[in-house]
Amino acid sequence: MKKLIGFLTFVSLAVSVAFADIYNSSRYVELGFDFDAGLNQNVFTMADIFMTGNSDNPGLVVIDFTKIADDMTKMNQKGLVIDGELGMDGFLKLNFKRFQVGLVTNFSSSGNFFVGKDLFTILGKGNEIGKEYEISEGGYFESFVSTSLPIGIRIGRFKITATPTAFIPIVYIPETTSSVKFTAKNNGAISAEANANFTAYGIFDLTGLNGVMDEISSLTSTTEISTGSTLSYTELMSNLQMENMLSDVLNSMGFDVNLAAEMALFSALDVGAYANVPIVPAKLHNSVSGNASWAFSMDGVLNSLGGETTSSTFEQPTFSGLVFSNSENYTVNRPFRFGAEAAFRPFGKWLTVRGKGGVAMRNPFGADFNITNSINTSSMYPEYKVGADLRLLYVFNFSLSHEYTDKVFVNRLGLGLNFRVLELDFALATSSTNFVRSFQVSGLQAALGMRIGF
Question: N or C terminus of the chain with fewer C-beta within 10 Å?
C-alpha cells in the first residue's frame, strides 16, 4: 500500500512539474465535460425580503419598495436587471511535455432582461393621478454552439497556445428596448400597456410559415389560419425549410482564434497574456420580425379598500405582423477579449493564487456593434478575476474566487476530488449584476465537471 501511494505521488509530482504553468494539468490523456448554469438579478436580497411571524400572520413577506427605489438612485442603477446563462462542453485533451492538443465542443446560451427604475419609484413613492408614466424595458438573448482545436507548444520558459474555433449562433436577438405606459385615474382605475417591435435572427429558414401564422389561436396540435381552415401539426412542420438545414448551418458558420502566451518569470510565478480575436463573422440569413404587445387594466382599486369588488382585465401577450425572411445578412461574432493573467505559487504546488484582468466586447464588429458608443451601450466592458486554489494530499482541491465576467459579479466556492484516473469538480456561487448585491445572495450559479484519464 505504501509503495502504491508513493508511486501515485511521484507520478502526480512529475506531471505537475512537467506542466507547471498558469493552468496546469493532472493527466496526460483527459476526457471530460463541464456544465454550469446561473440566474441572478440586482435588486432583491435577503435583507429586502424577510419573514415575520405571529399568530395572525405566521409568514408575512415584506418588500420595501421605497428603499429599493432609493438604493437604485444611490447606486446609479437603471432598474431591475435579470441575467441568466447556461453552458456545457465536452472535451478530449492530450497533454505532453512539450506539446498539447485537444478537441472541445461547447454550447452556451445567455440572456438579459431589465425593467426601468421608474417602476419601483411608483411602487414605493406613489404616483400622480392622471399622469402617464413611461417605464423602460428591454433585453437581449444569444445562443452558440462551437468546436475548438486547442494546440499548445512549449519553448524553453515560454508556452504558446492557439485555439481556432468554428462557431454557429443558433439564435441571436440584439439588445432591444421598449416601454410600458402606466396611468392611474381619478376614479381609481389603473391601466398599463406595452408595445414593442422585435427582430430575432437564427440559422433555420422559417419562410414557409409566412401567412400561416398571421392569426394564432393556440399553440396546441392545430393552428387556425385566416381562411378558417385547420392546419395540422404535421402540415405545419412541413412548411419549414428543413431540407436546407445543413447548408443553412454551414453558410452561417463563423471563425475566431484564441491566442495565449505564458512565461515562467520565476519558479513560483507565471505570467501571460491572452486575446480572443474574431476572424470571420457568422452570417445569419434567417429572421423573424414583428410586434409584441400586452395590456392590463383594473377598475375600482380605491373601492376595494372598503371591501367592494373590483374587475380587472389582462390581455395575454400577442404577436402580430410576423414576417419570416431568409434574405438577411446579419453578422455575429463571439465576444472579443484581451488581457493579462498570472499564477503565483508561494509554497509550491499545493497553493496557487491566480489573477487576470482585461476588456471584452459583445459582438465585436458585428451588425449591432458601434465602436463610437460601445461603452455607453455596454457593448464594451472590463473583466477581472482573482482567486486561490488549495490542494491537499493531491486529492482534495478547494477553490475560492471573485470575478466580473460578462457584466456579472460572481463569488465562487469550489470543491474538487482528484483520484488521478477520475476527477470530480463542484462549485456554487452567489452572483449579481451589482457588486454589493453579489455578496447578498441575489443570484446563484452552480457548476459540475468530471474528468477521466491517466
Answer: N
Residue 186, pLDDT above cutoff 50: yes
Instruction: Kindly give the interhelix angle for 118-125 and 65-74, rounded to the nearest 10 degrees.
Output: 140
Q: Nearest-5° angle of CA 26, CA 28, CA 31?
A: 85
- Please tell me whether residue 173 adopts helix, strand or coil conformation: strand
**Confidence class of residue 300 from pLDDT cuts 50, 70 and 90?**
low
Whether the pTM exceeds 0.85: the reply is no
Helix (H, G, I), strand (E, B) or coil at 214: coil
DSSP structure class, residue 252: H
End-to-end Cα separation, the chain, in angstroms? 20
| Residue 201 CB coordination number (10 Å) | 26
Cell of 121: 419609484
Q: What are the start-end ranges of the E strands in 189-232?
A: 190-202, 222-224, 230-232
Cα–Cα distance between 39 and 430 in angstroms, integer? 10
Task: Extract the C-alpha cell encoding 216.
Answer: 394564432
Quick: pLDDT tens for 362-386. Answer: 999 898 887 665 555 568 899 999 9
Q: Pull the grid cell for residue 54.
A: 405571529
Q: Which of 409, 345, 357 is nearest to 385 (CA)?
A: 357
* Cα pseudo-dihedral 110, 116, 120, 123, rounded to 10: -110
CA-nearest of 106, 92, 103, 102 to 36 is: 106
Contact of 168 with 252, CB cutoff 8 Å: yes
Q: Distance between CA 196 and CA 290 in Å, rounded?
A: 9
Do the Cβ atoms of 167 and 249 come closer than 8 Å? no
3-state secondary structure of 85: strand
Question: And the C-alpha cell for 413?
Answer: 466556492
pLDDT tens for 202-247 read 998 877 766 555 544 344 333 333 333 444 555 555 555 556 677 7
